[in-house]
Design brief:
Creatine Amidinohydrolase, Chain A, domain 1, Creatine Amidinohydrolase, four-stranded mixed sheet, 20 strands, elongated
């Protein structure tokens, strides 16, 4: 258990008069406990009370993870497939005296299975959302988190450097994605942040394209979006490449997005808001005549999750504070033509920002 994070949660629970917080397998449970778990048909819930030691309802085959995390033996309510989980829920609810109380639950992760069991054995149980508390804590990264994210960026960029000489005209998007995945592992990634996006020609007009068996062709643009994970922390980087010789119009698209990316990054400083970054990047693209083709926000938070708070979008008045980490990734996507995206990973510092990404923004020709 991370005692500092546990204490911060309990402080907020007391302020909001919440009896406990229930955490499901996922990033928040990992953030607090260090336990690697996953959602399955076997329910698992970590219960953080307003005061005292946390408790966990956990399948017997995963109970050693709770012991390794430092939970007290009397707070580990393990259950086996034979007897089922109802007894464990009953014991945990009684131990934490949850009947008639209000607890915080995760909006995106709490399932009806677990909630029904908690209600069954804690009569009158009420719920509030835990997300404001958890998002507030996770918004600012500590030095250890930043170091892991920097290593994840460095690893991903090393993989791309190794990949580029291997790309040839006629290779398919899928083949390139497979090669990149291998290079990520060769570079030392624990696993990939997500299946790499490789989209070329008209396919690149879709921001979340899936690699296909389409061969890359001379005269088009190719977007590659990829990342590595180091000690649970990911990187998320995008670069756009020219396949062979491309037209002046495609070069203009690229240079517009490059300028928009630089404008957005330049606004990363504590005196600004999330909205400021989006406005700066969007203005460059609109002035170049591509405004209607910029169809998503300028960036998203990154931490234990690829996408987390905050959102870099117009109207989001969340102030930038030192320790925030997020992407700046403006793009232009024209149906039937192609697309361009350049994505940076950025850290807010006391006097401005630090780019975690360093891979060149020059337009590289491949193939």
């Amino acid at each position: 258990m991370n005692k500092h994070r546990l204490a911060a949660i309990q402080t907020q629970l007391k302020k909001q008069n919440l009896a406990a917080m229930a955490l499901m397998p996922g990033p928040n449970l990992l953030y607090v406990s260090g336990m690697h778990t996953h959602l399955s048909e076997r329910p698992l819930v970590l219960l953080v009370p307003q005061s005292g030691d946390p408790a966990v309802i956990i399948p017997l085959l995963e109970a050693p993870k709770a012991t390794a995390a430092g939970l007290q033996a009397e707070r580990i309510f393990a259950w086996g497939d034979g007897e089922g989980y109802m007894g464990a829920f009953q014991q945990a609810c009684q131990a934490l005296n949850l009947a008639g109380q209000t607890i915080a639950v995760e909006k995106l992760y709490m399932r009806m299975l677990e909630w029904d069991m908690l209600e069954e054995f804690a009569a009158g149980l009420q719920r509030e959302y835990a997300d404001p508390i958890l998002n507030g804590l996770r918004l600012v990264k500590d030095a250890d988190e930043v170091a892991k994210m920097q290593k994840a960026v460095d690893t991903a960029e090393a993989a791309m450097t190794a990949l580029l000489p291997q790309i040839k005209i006629g290779m398919t998007e899928q083949q390139i994605a497979v090669l990149l995945t291998q290079e990520l592992m060769n570079a030392g990634s624990d696993r990939v942040s997500f299946g790499p996006i490789v989209s070329s020609g008209p396919n690149a007009a879709s921001p979340h394209a899936v690699p296909t068996n389409r061969p890359i062709q001379d005269g088009e643009l190719m977007i590659i979006d990829w990342g590595a994970i180091i000690d649970d922390y990911p990187s998320d980087i995008t670069r756009t490449f020219a396949v062979g010789e491309i037209s002046d119009e495609l070069k203009k698209m690229y240079q517009t997005v490059r300028a928009a990316s630089a404008a957005g990054v330049a606004e990363v400083k504590p005196v600004n808001t999330c909205s400021t970054i989006d406005e700066a990047a969007r203005q460059i693209i609109e002035d170049a005549g591509y405004g209607q083709y910029f169809i998503h926000r300028t960036g998203h938070g990154i931490g234990l999750e690829i996408h987390e708070e905050p959102s870099m979008m117009t109207g989001n008045g969340t102030p930038l504070v030192p320790g925030m980490t997020f992407t700046v990734e403006p793009g232009v996507y024209i149906q039937g033509v192609g697309g361009v995206r350049i994505e940076e990973n950025v850290l807010v510092t006391t006097d401005g920002h630090r780019l975690l990404t360093s891979f060149t923004r020059e337009l590289i020709q491949v193939g």
